[in-house]
Amino acid sequence: MPVYIDPPLWPAHGTHFSHLVSDTSYDELHAFAERLGVPRRAFDEDHYDVREALYGDAVAAGAVPVDGRELARLLVRSGLRVPARARPDRLARVLMNRWRHRFPGHVALGQELVDRWGEPHRHYHDRSHLLAVLEAVDLLHPGSGLAPGRVGAVVLAAWYHDAVHRGRAGHDERDSAALARDRLGAAGFPSRVVAEVERLVLLTAGHRCEPEDTAGAVLLDADLAVLGGAPDRYAAYAADVRREYAHVPDPAFAAGRLGVLEGLWRQQPLYRTATAQRLWGPAAARNLGAEIASLRAADARSSGGVPGDVEVLTITAVCLLDDDGALLTVRKRGTDSFMLVGGKIDPGETPEEAVVREAAEEVGLDLGPRGLRLLGRYTAPAANETSTWVHATVFTAPLAGRPQPRAEIEELRWQPLEEAAPELAPLLRDHVIPALRRSAPARRPAPRSDASGGGGRR
Known about the structure:
Blueprint: E1 3-5, E2 10-12, E3 15-22, H1 26-36, E4 48-51, H2 55-60, E5 64-65, H3 68-78, H4 88-102, H5 107-117, H6 127-140, H7 151-160, H8 171-186, H9 191-203, H10 214-223, H11 231-244, H12 250-265, H13 274-304, E6 311-319, E7 327-332, E8 341-344, H14 351-363, E9 373-381, E10 388-396, E11 409-415, H15 426-439, E12 449-450
Parallel strand pairs: 1-5, 6-10
Antiparallel strand pairs: 1-3, 2-3, 3-4, 6-8, 7-11, 9-10, 11-12
């Protein structure tokens, strides 16, 4: 495959330079440059800078001459281009070029913003993030229905949305909005633009906007584009966010982070513009779900004495007692243990929402969240999965209706609290039944029976 070279139009060191690239591999590019006599130090991340004197030799050796725009397109399509956000030494210049192009009469204002985004304590909310948000705005607004005259305010809001960043959620957004109002007002921007920028920046505190707010949708989707990245990029983003909040103890950070992520998850679909949802929606759902599960497991492990080498599942369950005081237990298809009605909590669900859903799916009962009462939160080895523990939020609820096995449930059994059958799940045997015994009034013993016999509502 050929390599490509653009005309020697770039002045430096008393001469002009061309750019030499490959659309196949860096190995091919390095080999060609070596044959041409270009030193490796001339390689700049994804291209070689070639002196004007070698341009003719490069073409004679097989480099295909193209103009600068075509060379850039070839490099992007090849997947070998190193984006500006990955080149810290160039980010400031790239951002200033963007600012000058959009707001040519306010260079000092742009320079202040570039300096702010380059503060040394920033690890995620830095110049790279700013450029990514600006690029996402460019990508999203054409198909969003946003009026052309309103795009400038969204771009300004992107520049200002984390211009103040001290690691204080809520305060930083308000301070950034106030900075935008003061600086833009003093610079002579129209008052309607200043007010719109301030409004948009404030939206980033909760990442919520009205359905008809197209400008807000574009900005918020652009700010959250990172959630839809590849798993390794998402992991790097999460690690950088933790570094920015290094002053916050682990338990407090985990609780706050979990609250933020679950709040985002409950907004499904996460993105408001069709373009963002198509490009990033599925990946963002996977990334958020994985981090939410990880944070929940870490919380269970820190609070429940769980061994460090096991997986922790966060679940919810409900205790349903019949008129004789026997407890409804279920056995899943292909397993031997009896357990409570319940299951895993989906990302964004509360334990109450999850247990209502599970009761309907497993035994056909409509519990209704108002009847739920918290029994306790317990951690125990899982019944049917090795090297796995569960961290369970357990409720009690009135038994209304006749339970029937559904979905993966193969068998129902009413378990007297006075007995301890060996096939009970550890959570049920070691935690739930003892808790029910302590909290229940004295009852007469009830004979064991299956779900279809006996008195009461079995």
